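Batch job 17 of 40 flagged for manual review because the log was empty.
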Amino acid sequence: MQVTRELFDDVMVPNYAPSKVIPVKGEGSRVWDQEGKEFIDFAGGIAVNCLGHCHPALVQALTEQGSKLWHLSNVMTNEPALRLAKKLTDATFAEKVYFANSGGEANEAALKLARRWAIDNYGDHKTQIISFKKSFHGRTFFTVTVGGQAAYSDGFGPKPGDVVHAEFNDLASLEKLISDNTCAVMIEPLQGEGGIVPADHDFMQGVRTLCDKHKALLIFDEVQTGIGRTGNLYAYQGLDVIPDILTSAKALGGGFPIGAMLTTTDIAKHLKVGTHGSTYGGNPLACAVAEAAVDIINTPETLKGVLEKEQLFIAGLDAINDKYQVFCEIRGKGLLLGAVLNQTYQGRSREFLNASAEHGLMSLVAGIDVVRFAPSLIISEQEIKQGLQRFEKAVAQVVSA
């Protein structure tokens, strides 16, 4: 059977609008489509392919586990899941881990846990959840409601209640909303879908203080910022703020679907047997691949390399901007970067994405005003330079159009 873009329209629900590019092979930071055209990958599957495509260690882990055991129900004890959980707790503030299949599921678990913790400890009145405008926390009805983009949650009928949104990086805005009825504040340490906006250090300190004052849990959504993306294993480690619950997914499996919720023993005890679950959560295949990914990423060499590559990217983007004057700011951290379009080019981020693809570069957008880059954490300096050369051609094309 021949697979074409037209087949998508015939057989798929139309909630996506994929490009005509159909990749068929990936190796490292390069991808080839059906026609054999080569792309340099600055998108990373939206910050998922942290070690590029088909990394030998991940292929080996998957192959070895695949010849042993594919699936166990959570009625059984699972070796790969326990090994991965131990590595995550050893490397973080956390003492307990819950495995799911995605970031949305990990966030769903975090929000349910926060509500259960608050009701058990303080009573039925303590259910308010505060998130931030322009945030993104997943596509389940609970998480999309907590996310601060109404366009994603409107149109499906009544939403889960007692959810409000503050202004990101505005502590006074949070202070007006938070009270002793608040059970949790959920925040991305660096807003991804909202435009690659880092949290200010003092703001994050203030959020932690307000949560402590009102006995509310602080939930860090590190689905996009976690697993080395910002130069720390998790972004909280560079902010001097320790959350009560942390969620992880995307890069955790290096491309294999897995999510995790991390927390302390005292908080975790409120998810008693039967209160939450997942058929595939902790799948042996996913956990084996994730363990291999964590082993490679959580090293001084890899994490230091992320920060070195960040500087290469910023210097290259600044040089392009000096020539074409299209960006007002380059922001982000590590290898989660956003080139913010200036007033002349506002609303045209997708034009830059499409032009990049024409010149053999995979990139991303973060809203209509930001071109986003989230490549492999181990992309080579040569590939960064080649990719930026292709991006410059794309910028020139848009500017001259």
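Reviewer: the log was empty due to a logging misconfiguration, but the result itself is present. The chain is about 40% helix and 20% strand. Unflagging and moving on to job 18.
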